[in-house]
Design brief:
globular; SHC Adaptor Protein; 196 residues; 8 strands; Double Stranded RNA Binding Domain; 4 helices
Length: 196
């Protein structure tokens, strides 16, 4: 397992980094060497002193991301709490039975039964909306951010042209990008240059 410790707008002291690496080493018995633990430390001055030190953890196991957060009077105290949480999540993830792949028709029927809808109903509704701030970035940075999050798509503002773009992972493992144009002319997709 690889543990990455970084600070959000702060320099992580070596003693805290070593403490985090020691604490996360106990998870190695559960996880293999393809697993990444991304530990981000931050400090919120407006919070009370007992919970001003915040530790956010993303644990990437087999391409799935488990997240957990804890706060404490020190980074070590927050790390103690968050490692326990992450360990429980990892155990639950590893013990969760894997469901065999079902045919598309069977999945659709089970989804309709679970939602309590009839077969004739085709109404879809938006059940969740996310809003987030986005900063302009280059395509390479968007790829790195998407990889870090473990997502299959990533919405960003392209720093080269200041347009919203959607980066997505293709089935062949490469990436594609959607660049919407409102009321403009359609431009054909650009092809990657051969030999690069």
């Amino acid at each position: 397992m690889r543990t990455i410790v970084r600070g959000k707008n702060l320099e992580v002291p070596d003693r805290v980094r070593q403490y985090a690496e020691r604490k996360f080493a106990r998870l190695e018995r559960l996880l293999d060497d393809r697993t990444d633990a991304i530990v981000e430390l931050s400090n919120e001055a407006h919070r009370s002193a007992t919970d001003a030190h915040i530790v956010d953890v993303q644990l990437v196991i087999d391409g799935k991301t488990l997240r957990s957060t804890a706060s404490g009077i020190s980074y070590q105290a927050a790390l103690d709490v968050v490692v326990d949480k992450v360990e429980r999540q990892a155990i639950d993830f590893k013990e969760k039975p894997r469901v065999r792949a079902r045919p598309v028709e069977e999945k659709a029927l089970l989804r309709k039964l679970a939602d309590g809808t009839s077969e004739s109903s085709t109404d879809r509704k938006i059940v969740k909306t996310k809003r987030f701030a986005i900063e302009p970035m280059f395509e390479e940075d968007a790829v790195a951010a998407m990889e870090e999050l473990g997502h299959d798509f990533y919405v960003f503002v392209n720093a080269e042209n200041e347009h919203v773009a959607v980066l997505y992972r293709r089935k062949d493992g490469d990436f594609g990008m959607i660049e919407p144009v409102v009321g403009g002319d359609y431009t054909p997709a650009r092809k990657a240059a051969k030999g690069r």
